[in-house]
From TrEMBL:
Residues 90-113 have a biased composition (Low complexity). One of its GO terms (molecular function) is zinc ion binding. Zn(2+) binds at C14, C17, C60, C63. Residues 12-87 form the ZAD domain. SMART domains: zf-AD. It holds the Pfam family zf-AD. The keyword Chloroplast does not apply. Keywords: Metal-binding, Zinc, Zinc-finger. InterPro entries: Znf_AD. The lineage of its organism: Eukaryota, Metazoa, Ecdysozoa, Arthropoda, Hexapoda. This is ZAD domain-containing protein. It comes from Harpegnathos saltator. Residues 88-113 are annotated as: Disordered. GO terms for cellular component: nucleus.
Length: 113
């Protein structure tokens, strides 16, 4: 284990945006595990984190915030899909929306002369 890089830096490199940040969360730390950061990163992002890879295991708060927002969005989509799927099993999609109010052109009550 040669220490090629100087580890004494004023922060941690974010695994997601590669920027140096003083406030980070360790992906495999206590909080990172609680937030399931590794799972979310592997599920949603085009990168893969592994506890054994040599890359940084930290993510900045900004990236985590965005990851969480993305997760919420995905949960919403999953929930909606599940709901639509279960609804379609029995009920037909005949949500007759016959509210086609044909807006006739307003009779212009302006006399021609
Ligand atoms: Zn970041």
């Amino acid at each position: 284990m040669g220490s090629t890089d100087k580890a004494v830096i004023t922060g941690f490199i974010c695994r997601l945006c590669s920027k140096m940040n003083r406030f980070v969360i360790h992906i495999y730390g206590e909080e990172g595990e609680r937030m399931k950061l590794a799972e979310k990163i592997n599920a949603y992002l085009p990168i893969t984190v592994n506890i054994n890879d040599p890359l940084p295991k930290t993510a900045c708060l900004h990236c985590i915030e965005r990851l969480e927002a993305h997760h919420e969005l995905m949960e919403q989509f999953m929930f909606a899909r599940r709901r639509l799927n279960t609804d379609n099993k029995t009920t037909t999609v005949a949500s007759s929306s016959t509210t086609t109010s044909t807006t006739t052109a307003p009779t212009s009550s302006t006399p021609p002369c």
